[in-house]
Design a protein that fits this description.
6 domains, 5-stranded mixed sheet, D-amino Acid Aminotransferase, Chain A, domain 1, about 675 residues, Helix Hairpins, single chain, alpha+beta, DNA-binding
Length: about 675
DNA sequence: CCGCCTCGAGTTCT
DNA sequence: CTCGAGGCGG
């Protein structure tokens, strides 16, 4: 055998192996070999190909790195236009679509296929003689852009197909960027100071339309194929569902969440089920595509204009919306932080009207280049909390104003400072009315002294009416003083007074936390209470004494010392003590408790008790409760609708507890 | 000094 | 829930 012939054979062998592993990894998501083993196979193939460049073919797995930039994309005329789907936004509209189809088909029941409608961009891939020859965007449906060299870099798109494939055919699919990849990409871009992508869809579209496909190659893109456009020279299946199965056999990546649905009830269920679970999906889905299964029936139903009558998109309530940023306001937090927030033209996102959104700090506003007057993208994704993703730069008129943090506190006119290297601005006036109000609110809050009946509203009123000047004054309030307050009945007044009285018995940890000392949260307050047993000793502790405690460093120590040094604060503590608020923490030998040394994490909702109560109970028995799973976690308590912690626990092999098992350990069963 | 792990602070709407 | 920042070990 000649050297060339041997090389040919070796190259063919390596390509077959690599293609197989590519398929396992990118299409099936179940690799059989390690990344290192894969890399070494690739390396070997590259070596052969460098030695014998005449044997390099376009479908070689080494050819997915992207090619040199092009000046512009060519135009591709779609032999069969790519249609867009009609939308329905409610179950009623879905029902009327179904009824219309049912009437046209003359039968009450027929098979359908439900698929996730992924927010990406539609592409058409043409294969001639088993090779990928053209990849094009949807464009206006009849003509799109030729982005073949970019699509070739997507690993889950086969460059060639098995011999049993039709000699000439076109498939269609949705190119998208998985959420994880999108977040990672934006993190990297933020670090490099590049503008961020607003959402995975924009990121995918931007990536696929790169003139330099080497850039596309570095983007985390994926594809799901959702239909066969046309096929010549081979018989193909007669239903949509079987077509998907067939395409899968040809090596295309098909969304495993697709379902064959046999009646309206199943259709509804499919839609509702995924609407609820959409946040948990690895990709952004904006709805469900429902398609009539039989291709013959599809044909009979036909199209109206550019929309097929045989399919419909059931759209989820939007999680993103455009609106106008009217102004940027500033809240002053209890520690004096200035928190800018967006004042928005009200807009419905995810079923609720959004008027405000947090903007965190000045640097963040700069980084996102948000200006007053901008049209902005508001989103309310996984979380409930709205956020401004970024401005729509193309809608700028030139009248937008950049935001700058004022030099004087908008509430009290006090001086604003920002420490070198820190993100937050602070109002330096501890007597700032806004700070006083927020501190009082914090004092009475649930995790603080837990005084029911006093919230945001009443805190403000009490201060405004001069009934209290600080938290300690609460304990000197008389019922009669409350009566003149608007809408304050006799009953409410006595409830509030008794709530205040009951709070005298709160633990030392709660009291320390309630004081609202900078850097002292629930956890640190707990440590301090166990270390010092009463407020007086803590108040006189030195920086050295404090820093010797595990978990307390210089920042926290000096924050504490500074707090207790202020006459104002010493007076408050004195007043609290005089009013009988002076809890003692008894030394408890933690080691003897049943849950000593065991770390618990809770995910999801528990039926019998709230998360906070559960955590308090764990701590009371000597265990610890943490917010997130780490290697040190002993147990993950799994409630209903568990979150991402469950997945993490699985990968770390953390023992899981059902609520029942958990309660047993808490000695509650 | 860097990278991990934890904790703290603030957040919207019903 | 997310981001920022403090604490601490390597």
């Amino acid at each position: 055998m000649t050297d060339l012939a041997q090389a040919k054979q070796e190259i063919a062998r390596l390509r077959a192996i690599i293609n197989h592993h590519n398929y396992r990894y990118y299409v099936l998501d179940s690799p059989e070999i390690s990344d290192a083993e894969y890399d070494s196979l690739m390396q070997e193939l590259k070596q052969w190909e460098t030695e014998y460049p005449q044997l390099v073919t376009p479908d070689s797995p080494t050819q997915r790195v992207g090619a040199a930039p092009v000046a512009a994309f060519g135009v591709v005329v779609h032999p069969l236009p790519l249609l867009s789907l009609g939308n329905v936004f409610s179950e009623e509209e879905l029902l009327s679509w179904y009824n219309r189809i049912s009437r046209l088909l003359g039968q009450p029941q027929f098979d359908l296929v439900g698929e996730h409608k992924i927010d990406g961009l539609a592409v058409a891939l043409t294969y001639v003689d088993r090779q990928l020859t053209t990849g094009a965007t949807r464009g206006d449906g009849s003509r799109g852009e030729n982005i073949t060299s970019n699509l070739r870099t997507i690993r889950s798109i086969p460059l060639s197909v098995p011999p049993e494939a039709p000699p000439r055919f076109e498939v269609r699919g949705e190119v998208f960027m998985p959420k994880a990849g999108f977040n990672q990409l934006n993190r990297e871009r933020a670090e490099e100071g590049l503008p961020l992508f607003a959402n995975p869809r924009n990121a995918a579209a931007g990536s696929v339309r790169q003139l330099d496909s080497r850039i596309t190659a570095k983007r985390p893109l994926d594809i799901y194929i959702y239909m066969l456009g046309y096929a010549e020279g081979r018989p193909t299946p007669t239903t949509h569902w079987e077509t998907l199965v067939y395409l899968k056999q040809l090596g295309f990546k098909i969304n495993p969440n697709n379902r064959l649905l046999t009646n309206l009830e199943q259709v509804k269920q499919f839609c509702n089920q995924w609407q609820e679970k959409r946040d948990g999906l690895p990709y952004e889905a904006d709805g469900i595509a429902i398609k009539v299964d039989s291709l013959a029936q599809q044909q009979r139903l036909g199209n109206i204009r550019h929309e097929p009558r045989w399919a419909i998109a059931y759209k989820f309530p939007a999680i993103q919306a455009f609106t106008k940023l009217k102004d940027i306001g500033i809240n002053v937090g209890r520690t004096g932080t200035l928190n800018p927030y967006a004042i928005l033209e009200p807009v419905v996102v995810g079923g609720v009207v959004i008027k405000h959104a947090a903007l965190h700090n000045e640097a963040d506003i700069r980084r996102k280049d948000i200006r007053i007057g901008d049209t902005v993208i508001v989103q309310r994704a996984g979380e409930v909390i709205p956020e401004i993703v970024g401005p729509v730069v193309s809608k700028r008129t030139g009248k937008e104003r950049e935001f700058t943090m004022p030099s004087r506190c908008p509430v009290c006119g006090g001086k604003i400072t920002r420490a070198e290297g820190e993100a937050m601005h602070y109002c330096s006036n501890a007597a700032c009315p806004a700070q006083i109000r927020e501190r009082l609110r914090h004092f009475v809050s649930r995790p603080g002294m837990d005084i029911r009946g006093i919230g945001e509203k009443l805190s403000a009123t009490l201060l405004k009416e001069g009934l209290v000047k600080d938290a300690a004054d609460l304990y000197y309030l008389k019922k009669e003083q409350l009566s003149p307050i608007d809408r304050m009945g006799d009953k409410s007044a006595s409830n509030i007074i008794s709530a205040i009285n009951n709070s005298r018995k709160q633990s030392l940890a709660r009291l320390i936390f309630a004081l609202g000392i900078r850097h002292i949260g629930e956890e640190t307050a707990d440590i301090l209470s166990r270390e010092f047993h009463c407020l007086d000793i803590l108040a006189n502790a030195s920086v050295e004494e404090l820093t010797s405690i595990r978990g307390i460093g210089t920042e926290i120590a000096s924050s504490l010392v500074a707090f207790f040094k202020l006459d104002e604060n010493r007076r408050i503590i004195r007043k609290l003590k005089d009013a009988g608020v002076n809890p003692k923490e008894e030394a408890v030998p933690v080691k003897e408790l049943p849950l000593a040394g065991q770390e618990f994490v809770i995910t999801g909702r528990l039926e019998t008790l709230g998360r906070h109560e559960a955590e308090a109970r764990i701590k009371a028995l000597g265990g610890t409760a943490k917010g997130d799973v780490t290697r040190k976690t002993a147990y993950l308590v799994v409630g209903t609708e568990p979150g991402s912690k469950l997945a993490k626990a699985k990968t770390l092999g953390i023992k899981q507890l059902t609520e029942e098992e958990f309660l047993t350990r808490l000695r509650m069963r």
